[in-house]
Amino acid sequence: MIGNDYFRDKICLVTGANSGIGYALSEELLKRGATVYLAGRDSKKGADAAAKLSVFKDRVHTIVMDVTKQEQVQRAIEQTAAEAGRLDLLFNNAGILLMALFERATLEEWKVMIDTNLWGVIYGVHTAVPIMLMQGSGHIVNVSSVGGIIPYPMQALYNTTKFAVTGLSESLRFEYAEKGLHFSTVFPGPVATPIYEKRLGKADPLMKVPGDAIPADSAATFILDRVAERKALIIVPEGFHDHLWRKYVSSDPEAEEMLLAHAHNRRLALERGNPAAAAAAPMHR
User: Fold this and answer.
1) Whether 39 and 102 share a structural domain
2) Checking CA distances to 158, which of 33, 85, 209, 250 falls within 20 to 30 Å?
3) Which residue is catalytic, options 23, 123, 158, 176?
């Protein structure tokens, strides 16, 4: 398997580790020989996650941490590094999703999204970078989204936070390249996780996992293989949105406009409760 040696005996902290991609990353890291600190804000879910990973014994640790609280993030990362003697990899994975028309979004929803998806990453990076600089090594993996490279309609709040994560990660990748630190940005597309069934972290019966979503464990395997190769940009599933990515990087405004308008027409039809119209949405404005 690619990348086993890269993670063997490494100290890793994963946020949002109680479920979804975070849990799958934690399990796969353990399989590859790492020691993993599973960070999440729900102590019971953290204990349940650790129990499912009990076969890995003393390489599994849990941390109760809310990524929206700077002091909790700082304490968790610093205590991890102090207890383990170092911090090799930080996975800033915790995040929430909101798909809605802009005019229906409240400022409080904006705040919740930014506090979780962006400030949570900033807090993690702000604390981890000095530790890794002192070590002379370290790898930070920030989970963005395909919504952090393609401005999908009807998710302006989510896109704003994820574009910011992309920009932050790429800027820091160059800034610290000669100082022994590595940065990777992960762009999940359809991956079967609870994020699709929640609105701002709370259960929402109207939100569903996409039918073409891949299992979280498959995504984790692919992500870690690319992290081990120190890839900067990691889109998962493999090959997902290759056509959109090509349009994005090749600066083809007309093609991108058509694709995004199509996405808008589909989502607007769904918003209005008309799945048939969504399926027949035209590929134009």
Assistant:
1) yes
2) 250
3) 158
